[in-house]
């Protein structure tokens, strides 16, 4: 979703910058769109050679002529480059793993300085291994640089999206753009719509009073044992969901509002299932997914998740 989301906001983007290649999933998603060049900065150049082992997942993206793979430090590249970009997608590792400098106010300011007019900035937002206070610090730091911040949910993690204007997405255009994707899940414009959680006002209310993470005050560089508690994932998600907005505040011209309502109601059970999974409560996980599917049988994603969980459960307990 980190790769697709910015193009639904700025479908006319001509170039893109990706910070962090990993196994190439985000780069593969970006390459599906009609964009000229994709600069991808990766501090560990060896992953370029490893990408071929994940070709099933990344569509052999390293061979795509759009990709310009650059080995090096992402922040230094942004500091030194003369290029400007229509889209920046940042997918670094978790801040507690030694890359806090990709989550500071100064870093986000550098990113903002190389965005073109109408550019879009997307940032990976971890829900795990952060206390609620640290989680708010991360979001507050981003939104302090990008006032027009929205928060989106991609199951196990969130996505911070920034534009230079208040976001407004036309559902009809969104649906047409989604039809061009070869994806069994993302083709559903209603599923995409309900992944929106917070607009800029809700984001500001959620992070009110939070501290800013800076180079000189790197709060996210250091953490206590409380940060790595397993339950932090669902604590952060549950807290964020309380501030969710009606997606129609941003995504307009939705033609079937009853259908949207079914998706929203079913999503509550789906998210509860994810929380149960994080807690190791498999029985309630299955029941929550079943209820979500009963309310909204059109949601292919829920069906896939339920089938996967039942398959794993049957492998562990054949009699189930």
Automatic annotation (TrEMBL):
InterPro entries: PABS, SAM-dependent_MTases_sf, Spermi_synthase, TPR_rpt. It holds the Pfam family Spermine_synth. CDD domains: AdoMet_MTases (cd02440). Keywords: Transferase. GO terms for biological process: spermidine biosynthetic process. GO terms for cellular component: cytosol. PROSITE patterns: PABS_2, TPR. Residues 1-176 form the PABS domain. One of its GO terms (molecular function) is spermidine synthase activity. Belongs to the spermidine/spermine synthase family. This is PABS domain-containing protein.
């Amino acid at each position: 979703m980190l790769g697709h989301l910015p193009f639904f906001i700025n479908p006319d983007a001509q170039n893109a910058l990706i910070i962090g290649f990993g196994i190439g999933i985000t780069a593969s998603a970006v390459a599906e769109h009609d964009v000229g060049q994709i600069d991808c900065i990766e501090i560990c150049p060896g992953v370029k050679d490893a990408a071929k082992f994940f070709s099933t997942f990344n569509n052999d993206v390293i061979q795509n002529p759009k990709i310009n793979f650059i080995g090096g430090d992402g922040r230094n590249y942004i500091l030194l480059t003369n290029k400007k970009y229509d889209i920046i997608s940042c997918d670094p590792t978790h801040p507690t793993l030694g890359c806090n400098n990709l989550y500071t106010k100064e870093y986000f300011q550098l990113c903002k300085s190389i965005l073109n007019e109408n550019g879009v900035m997307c940032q990976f937002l971890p829900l795990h291994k952060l206390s609620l206070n640290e989680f708010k610090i991360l979001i507050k730091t981003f939104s302090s640089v990008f006032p027009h911040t929205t928060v989106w949910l991609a199951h196990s993690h969130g996505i911070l999206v920034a534009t230079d204007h208040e976001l407004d997405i036309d559902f009809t255009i969104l649906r047409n753009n989604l039809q061009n994707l070869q994806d069994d899940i993302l083709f559903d414009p209603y599923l995409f719509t309900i992944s929106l959680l917070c607009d800029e006002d809700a984001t500001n209310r959620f992070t009110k009073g939070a501290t800013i993470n800076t180079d000189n005050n790197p709060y996210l560089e250091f953490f206590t044992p409380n940060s790595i508690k397993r339950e932090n994932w669902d604590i952060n998600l549950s807290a964020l969901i309380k501030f969710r907005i009606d997606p129609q505040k941003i995504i307009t011209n939705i033609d079937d509002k009853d259908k949207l309502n079914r998706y929203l109601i079913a999503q509550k059970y789906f998210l509860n299932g994810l929380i149960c999974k994080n807690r190791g409560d498999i029985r309630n996980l299955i029941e929550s997914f079943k209820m979500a599917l009963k309310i909204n049988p059109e949601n292919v994603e829920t069906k896939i998740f339920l089938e996967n969980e039942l398959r794993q459960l049957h492998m562990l307990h054949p009699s189930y």
